[in-house]
Design a protein that fits this description.
Length: 72
Amino acid sequence: MSTTEETKPELIPTKIWKCRNADCKAWVRDEFAADSQLCPMCKGPMLRSIRHLPAVVNKIKRQPKPKNEYGL
């Protein structure tokens, strides 16, 4: 199986939070990070960084339509 430029995703600079603990390899994209900025794995402090990652398409989940009393 050969790799071509068409199959490789385009990498873009992305803001991330990574764990300061050298033994912990956890990181999270800034857009998905919690407000507390604690490592989700070891609960240690995190610091800002940048990684070159493929773009993520955030899909909006649709809210279910409210059903009336007849189930329509």
